[in-house]
Amino acid sequence: MTRITPKRKAALADIVTIAAFFLILCGGLMAHLLAGDQERSDTERRVLEQFPQVSAKTIWNGTFFDDLETYGADQFPARDGFLELKAAGTIWGLGERDTEGYYMAQGQLSRLDDPPEESSVLRVAELYQMLAEQYGKEGRVYYTVIPSKNRYLAAQNGYPSWDYDRIEQLLREHTEGIQEIRISGLLEAEDYYQTDLHWRQEELLDVADALLSGMSNPTGSGGWDTYTKTYGGAFLGAYARQSFLDVQADALYYLESPVTKGASVYDWEEGVTTAVYEKAALDGADQYDIFLSGAKALLTVENPLAEEERELILFRDSFGSSLAPLLLHGYSKITLVDLRYISRTALEQYLEPSQNCDILFAYNDSVLGSSAMIDRP
Amino acid sequence: MVFSSISFLYFFLPAVLVMYYVIPWKYKNGLLLAASLFFYFWGEQATVFVMIGMALAGYGFGRLLGYMDQMSERMAGGRIPARKTICILAAAGNGIVLAAFKYGWWGLELPAGISFFTFQIISYVADVYRRDVNVQNHPVDFLMYVSAFPQLIAGPIVRYKDMEGQIGRRPLGVGQIASGIRMFLAGLGKKVLIANELGALIQKLDAASASSYGDAGETVLGTWLGAVAFFFQIYYDFSGYSDMAVGLGRMLGFHFPDNFDYPYISASVTEFWRRWHKTLGGWFRDYVYIPLGGNRVSRGKWIRNVLIVWALTGIWHGASWNFLVWGLYFGCFLLLERLLLRPLLERLPKVCRHLYTLAVVFIGMIIFRGGTPGYVWEQLGRLLGLRGGLSADSYSLYYLKSYGRLLIVSVIGATWLPKRLYWMMADRCSRTGTRIDRVLSWLWPAAQALVCAGLLLWVTACLVGGSFNPFLYFRF
Description:
The complex is a heterodimer.
Chain A: H1 6-34, E1 40-41, E2 46-47, H2 56-60, H3 63-74, H4 79-93, E3 102-105, E4 108-111, H5 118-135, E5 141-146, H6 150-153, H7 164-173, E6 179-180, H8 205-214, E7 228-235, H9 238-243, E8 250-256, H10 258-262, E9 264-267, E10 272-274, E11 298-302, E12 311-316, H11 319-327, E13 333-337, H12 344-347, E14 357-364, H13 365-369
Parallel strand pairs in A: 5-6, 5-14, 12-13, 12-14
Antiparallel strand pairs in A: 1-2, 3-4, 7-8, 9-10, 9-11, 11-13
Helix pairs in contact in A: 5-7
Chain B: H1 6-22, H2 25-44, H3 48-74, H4 82-102, H5 114-129, H6 139-147, H7 149-152, H8 160-167, H9 174-210, H10 220-251, H11 269-275, H12 278-289, H13 299-317, H14 321-347, H15 350-369, H16 373-383, H17 394-402, H18 404-413, H19 417-428, H20 435-464
Helix pairs in contact in B: 1-2, 2-6, 3-4, 3-5, 3-6, 4-5, 9-10, 9-20, 10-15, 12-13, 13-14, 14-15, 15-16
């Protein structure tokens, strides 16, 4: 440790630097060549790019090289580890307060919303009006705005947030004959999963109660003591998987009652009948799919234990999946329509509201801010 | 292919470098040419033939000039008047091809890097004409000079004069490779970790300002943030790319000229242009300004020469009006400083001179960024709060907080401070007097390797995550 000259130490620094550089580059290349390609990423929940097709045409028009670049990034060895490093580097290294829009506040993960367009909210109001005129002949049409988690986290923690009152005011001003049921005052940040965008079903009893009362449904309102809380397992939500931030998993619970156990769910798209809680989803990639089997265009839930023949058509997004089971004991039938996956024209052949029918529009803030996804003719 | 991509870093570069280091010297230029053509074909496909055609034409013009020199010698020193015509023909031909692609004549698409390699070819023919360099007789060596992948796409503009002695055989040692790696990684970090992040900030601000909802929209703070972010983005983007090019050159045994020398610490616009895109400024000086007579002419002609050079500098960047205005804007300030401002500036405290330069360059970058005259006026009006709207909204305030550290790093990184700190550390760690000195001297090599490895892994993580990754100078 003593008799080595500074010049030799500089040479040593050079050699170590070169070795580290080539070790990483060649190691990356070799690992890429030796490791098998993955078909999909469970964490990101998407299909990964495969080695592109080699042909004179794809090489000549450059698509081969573009696809190879995507393939290189998608199939990079230890991809998830690198994505975690990127997230940590953005937050701790660069000091940014979010990574790809994901941020952590009050122990909750959330995602910044892009600034909304006022025209988008107006388009939703127009859509509600149109659907109310088409299906709400009895005049029992309601809407509620499902608050996103950001309502309770963003502004309070120095993150940009929307003027949510303005959204509600715009809807109010531009809808006629559609009653508003406000639920934002009944929720707080802790009512949402820490790792996911969705709300916790076990925290929704007062929301369900308010909605049922708002829709003048006396049989449905109250009677929550028949529900029991069942533990579904650990749940690492979409925000945790997509942000690659280090966060602990949530505990997922679902509320069961004789009504939910006795009900049947018909999936019009698949043509199959399932249960309200699809318990197989607890072992799948997204445990939130336990609620009415996840993303579905059109479902009909029949409740044979209903005290009266009363129907609900619920225009909803994914938040509605965990909400609908709690509304079920007030109705003999609930039809859930997700306009993100079915167009208005296609819907006409399936929806035939009975005389005793309520219609509820329940969309989350984010959908209202970018409504093109639900406004397909 | 861009340097800051997985395919370059993990497929192309290790394969090329390993082959390059193991094959005998006589094959190195051939390998480098093949690799460079593949590199260009990856991104540009058929237009590789445009580059090859232009390079071969330049090679042919050089050989022709050489042949004429031989003829002249045989004629016992008799002058051959066609030499000048050939040189003008070569410069004009290259200029026309460049203009045709650059300005989209006949619907042609712009091949990447054409502005850079065209200038290299012209410099070669001009230097052969001036007899400053020998004719390159080997087409592979000449094509390698024009197409060498480190400097092919976005410079620096390496003149043949600077490369002539390095084309045949060049020293390649451990020290040079390691210094190339450090320079390459520094450039990669500037590009991916700073320029790309600033670019993402600009995108977010644009999205927020485009919103018509609530208190979001165009604000004074948002406009300032966007303009400052662009001011630094363009510096880190372009100088990062140049550093990568110089670093790669060193790894291959070349010594490319530096392109940037802390331009944002300049105390005058004249000094700024001595520090910003140095190889372009040098090219215009040697191949346009001086041949026009430089400053050894009447004052009127000198002003004309300056304005011609700066108009050309502007339109070299693109066909849009704003580039021409941008060039002339700086040309006018250079004239102003020379004719009027220099005595005044010399009397000002240094901090005022820096602020003056920063202000002129800052506005220059707004002109550079803008696509229409309206955009520039609108931006200037908003910066001064003259166009109504809020001074700040929740988005601009958030982005200021979120990107505050990056902006501070951008400011510090644009000065000589990091480099000075590095050399201070190197100096401190080279002492061996005390026990602590000896420990530090052993830790220093490990620290350097660790920083390099950490930087490379962090950049890889950003690229794997598919971050925003444009190159501002790619299409110039």
